[in-house]
Amino acid sequence: MPAAIEATDLTKTFKTFDRRPGLLGSLRDIVDRKYRELTAVQGVSLAIQPGEVIGYIGPNGAGKSTTIKMLTGIMTPTRGSVRVNGFDPHRDRARYVRTVGAVFGQRSQLWWDLAVGESFELLRHLYDVPLEDFQRRLARFDQVLSLGEFLRTPVRKLSLGQRMKADLAASLLHNPPVLFLDEPTVGVDVVTKSRLRQFLIDLNREENTTILLTTHDMQDIEALCRRVVVIDHGKIMHDGDLAALKERYGASSTMQLTMKSPIDLAGVIDLPREGVIWKQTSPLQLEATIAASTDTPALLQRCFATLPVADVAIAETTIDEVVKSLYGGRSG
């Protein structure tokens, strides 16, 4: 089966004006400008199969949005090739745009002074969507996203959450097989985020829609994505499933043990020590910091055989901790 999205050696370089400081420098810039090249994306290769939901994550300035803009045809790559749904986004633009949808959290595709419903009608004509299909899809979106509350409201008067719902519906009116989402839940309240996530899960399950998602909200990633691609300084650092990312870069997990009777950790000599750091927090409680490579089930068996355990709780590594570890302190 051909890939829904395929990028090979995708590279984008910008030429930026290197401004000299001071008045004298400004005068020199008039007659002798100096430029330098900035590589935003460097040698990115991706193959995304139909129906996959991919999280594309990285710190600010890593190259996420630049990649999305090249995949959607907004930007032309400096080097490399892109095929989405069998089209080159830059050479086959008229046909290509009918096969994809895109939501950019910071920018709306709707007409600012028109009511939301009027924008939808314009998009229906632009994409040649049959009226029956349009009405059926709009009814479905209304059922999940409560569009009826603001269909007659001008886009400029929408709240951020309402605008994100409207933009998502607008991007899907023509039933595209591929959907690009760039920070779709930025600034949106918790309830709206939850509804948007469930809507995307249902969309992927029912329509087999391929989704490429960039976000700083790691809960979006955990809720929607099995496969994660991590980019930093324009290069891919990891491409694999979420569990593999946690295993490769994850911080230690934590295990809390509650005892039936008081114990003294110093007097317990049979506890496993390799890959485990023990700490006693009270006479009835122990805390173990467990390295990712440790066999946790085997550790639990030893604990139950050695200690009077009444209860156990394990806090797994969160995706937020993984990303902090992966970025090495860079801002996400």
Q: Could you give a quick summary of the protein structure above?
A:
The protein has 332 residues and is an alpha/beta fold. The chain is 34% helix and 28% strand.
Describe the structure.
- By secondary structure, the protein is α/β, with parallel strands linked by helices.
- It folds into 2 domains: 243 residues, P-loop containing nucleotide triphosphate hydrolases (Rossmann fold); 65 residues, Alpha-L RNA-binding motif (Alpha-Beta Plaits).
- Helix content is 34%, strand content 28%.
- It has 11 helices and 13 strands.
- A 6-stranded mixed β-sheet has the order 5-6-7-3-8-9, with helices on both faces.
- Helix 7 links the parallel strand 6 and strand 7.
- Helix 5 runs antiparallel to helix 6 and helix 9 crosses helix 11.
- The model has no long low-confidence stretch (mean pLDDT 86).
Secondary structure topology:
Blueprint: E1 5-17, H1 22-31, E2 35-48, E3 53-57, H2 64-71, E4 79-84, H3 93-96, E5 100-104, H4 116-126, H5 131-145, H6 160-172, E6 178-182, H7 190-207, E7 210-214, H8 218-224, E8 227-232, E9 235-241, H9 242-249, E10 253-259, E11 276-282, E12 285-290, H10 296-306, E13 309-315, H11 319-327
Parallel strand pairs: 3-7, 3-8, 5-6, 6-7
Antiparallel strand pairs: 1-2, 1-4, 8-9, 10-12, 10-13, 11-12
